[in-house]
Recover the amino acids of this structure.
């Protein structure tokens, strides 16, 4: 690669609607590689539609989503998805190693079993998130942060350059949040682009290189300083202004 | 002994029941794992009930068109069509109306079951279906065609499940990820539903409509209590299915009872036994874990007592300050194992780790005491209440209390200045 950062996700004029109600309206974003990007916006702002669009699950009314230059619907597996903790059945009979190995399933033809190199890749991914000592544990026995890291490992084992995380910091304590952030940072340094749906505005500025503020339409995309502005936030999060004025003050200190 | 165990084995009806029952139980157990994990147990129930309409339809069509009496493949096909129609209707109703899925299942399967019952009674001169047989099953009277049908169904379904194990696993565990790597999740769902229908259809002639759900989910649920991997769960479920059939058949011969009922009874007892004794997810294990659990409160009380005493503390002193309904021997033993305490000639002393821990609790105690004072708690209640609250000593709480206590003091100073 000659240029240091290139565009990996290119969203142009994306409009998606459900029953004539727009979930996303004319969203245009160009995400460069090797960055930690936060997606923020109130509930019902179209964040999950945005995720689905990037994963290629929905056909937009108009506009395009390009992943590494390919249409999102054709680029299956090029975005590795890390689900919200609440969306996972933690009682499922599956071990840490098996979850990580799932990241390799796309590469394994249906008629063969996982090979040694697949197991190796899964183990390496687990080492990267420091979960290699837990390979035989059932996933429900882990702490919240460990669970999150196992799913990070699965995404890393997938070998995709783009990771999409749905609220990885939801429901974990402050120390765990640090540990997860560290893994994200390490992934970024190894050349991954991470797109993280985030709900906690008070940490958004500190965690991410760039922020995407959406509520149906794109309100801002840029550095935290550019996005976390009082006028913008008050427009997007109506009626909860007082909290944000505090937040922005802290920001400017 | 011979009479009890070997004699039944020499009877042809027993052999057939054993073979047929085992085949069905194996495949039902394996498919059942996915049914249990996807929470579709109610759907299995629906499929088995809906079948009767299909059986009647298949019987009628073959009789009218080809003049074949009780044509097994025709009835099988009919049941399959009925089962799949039911599933389609359920998802249709659940999707387009405000009626939720469980209600849609209840409406559709009783409706189609009723249709079957009405059809069977209207055409009773053409169709010779014994409703009672259909509902209760007749494993001791298994016909050869039934055996062949179930053998083919089992072979087919098991082949699909083994070949596409990973696909079923990932589509069950994390459908979103499955879709994101390009797997046809919806198609996999349909294949699984078809497999469940096939298994249900082939099992109904043996154990009957009502018990077939049990054969599908009870062995799978039993295996679920014992395994942390899906492949092992499936293998165990198949095993438990077979043991239910064997145990149930002997039970039925010894007690001279209904075959299907005996099998499900044995299966359920088996589940209850495993539920009790399972090493990790069993009731006994849970009870033992709870019993061995030493409340953090007792450990912390011991730590602070020793810290305050400031030299090796004899047991009598600890007993005086620490309330422990189940005695102190086990907590002390555990704390020595965990490296918090050490036993010396004069009594118990703190290790460096224990000292650190004890100081943490003591700090929390002081913070809580100060906090209680600011909110106007009576003096005589300060210490006992703080003693209760000191166990809430995580970093966030301590930090919060520290900040909270910092501010009122400033406020007071401000007021003094004015």
């Amino acid at each position: 690669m000659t240029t240091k950062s290139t565009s990996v996700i290119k969203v142009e004029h994306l409009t998606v609607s459900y029953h004539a109600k727009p979930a996303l309206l004319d969203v245009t974003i160009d995400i460069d590689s090797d960055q930690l990007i936060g997606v923020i916006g109130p509930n019902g702002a179209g964040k999950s539609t945005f995720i689905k669009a990037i994963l290629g699950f929905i056909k937009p009314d108009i506009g395009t989503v390009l992943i590494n230059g390919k249409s999102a619907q054709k680029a299956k597996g090029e975005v590795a998805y890390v689900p919200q903790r609440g969306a996972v059945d933690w009682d499922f009979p599956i071990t840490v190693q098996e979850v990580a190995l799932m990241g390799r399933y796309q590469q394994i033809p249906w008629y063969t079993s996982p090979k040694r190199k697949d197991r190796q890749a899964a183990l390496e991914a687990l080492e990267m998130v420091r979960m290699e000592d837990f390979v035989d544990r059932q996933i429900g026995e882990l702490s919240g942060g460990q669970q999150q890291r196992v799913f990070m490992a699965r995404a890393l084992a997938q070998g995709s350059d783009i990771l999409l995380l749905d609220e990885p910091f939801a429901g974990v304590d402050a120390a765990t949040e640090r540990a997860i952030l560290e893994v994200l940072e390490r992934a970024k340094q190894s050349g991954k682009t991470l797109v993280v749906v985030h709900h906690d505005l008070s940490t958004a500025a500190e965690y991410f290189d760039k922020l995407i503020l959406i509520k149906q339409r794109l309100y801002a995309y840029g550095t935290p300083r550019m996005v976390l502005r009082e006028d913008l936030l008050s427009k997007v999060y109506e009626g909860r202004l007082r909290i944000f004025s505090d937040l922005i003050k802290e920001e400017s200190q | 002994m011979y009479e009890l165990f070997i004699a039944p084995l020499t009877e042809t009806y027993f052999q057939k029941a054993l073979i047929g029952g085992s085949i069905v139980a194996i495949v039902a157990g394996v498919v059942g794992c996915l049914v249990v994990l996807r929470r579709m147990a109610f759907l299995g129930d629906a499929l088995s009930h809906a079948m009767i309409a299909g059986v009647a339809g298949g019987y009628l069509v073959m009789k009218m068109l080809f003049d074949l009496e009780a044509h097994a493949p025709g009835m099988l096909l009919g049941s399959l069509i009925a089962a799949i129609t039911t599933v389609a209707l359920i998802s249709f109703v659940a999707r387009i109306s405000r009626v939720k899925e469980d209600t849609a299942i209840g409406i559709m399967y009783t409706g189609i079951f009723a249709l079957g019952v009405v059809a069977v009674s209207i055409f009773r001169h053409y169709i010779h279906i014994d409703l009672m047989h259909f509902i209760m099953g007749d494993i001791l009277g298994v016909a050869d065609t039934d055996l062949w049908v179930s053998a083919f169904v089992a072979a087919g379904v098991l082949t699909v499940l083994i070949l596409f194990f990973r696909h079923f696993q990932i589509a069950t565990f994390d459908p979103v990820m499955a879709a994101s790597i390009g797997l046809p999740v919806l198609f996999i769902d349909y294949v699984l539903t078809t497999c469940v229908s096939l298994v249900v259809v082939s099992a109904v002639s043996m154990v009957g409509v009502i018990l077939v759900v049990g054969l599908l989910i009870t062995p799978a649920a039993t295996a679920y209590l014992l395994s942390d991997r899906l492949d092992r769960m499936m293998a165990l479920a198949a095993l438990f299915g077979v043991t239910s059939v064997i145990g149930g058949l002997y039970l039925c011969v010894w007690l001279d009872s209904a075959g299907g009922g005996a099998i499900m009874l044995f299966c359920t007892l088996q589940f209850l036994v495993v539920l009790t004794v399972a090493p990790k997810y069993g009731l006994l294990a849970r009870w033992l874990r709870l019993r061995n659990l030493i409340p953090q409160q007792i450990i912390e009380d011991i730590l602070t007592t020793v810290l305050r005493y400031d030299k090796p503390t004899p047991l009598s002193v600890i007993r005086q300050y620490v309330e422990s309904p189940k005695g102190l021997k086990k907590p002390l033993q555990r704390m020595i194992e965990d490296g918090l305490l050490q036993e010396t000639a004069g009594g118990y002393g703190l290790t460096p780790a224990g000292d650190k821990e004890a100081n943490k609790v003591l700090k929390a105690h002081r913070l809580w005491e100060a906090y209680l004072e600011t909110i106007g708690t009576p003096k005589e209640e300060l210490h006992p209440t703080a003693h209760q609250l000191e166990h809430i000593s995580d970093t966030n709480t301590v930090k919060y209390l520290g900040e909270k206590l910092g501010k009122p003091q400033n406020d007071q100073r401000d007021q003094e200045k004015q």
About this structure: The two ends of chain A are 38 Å apart (CA to CA).
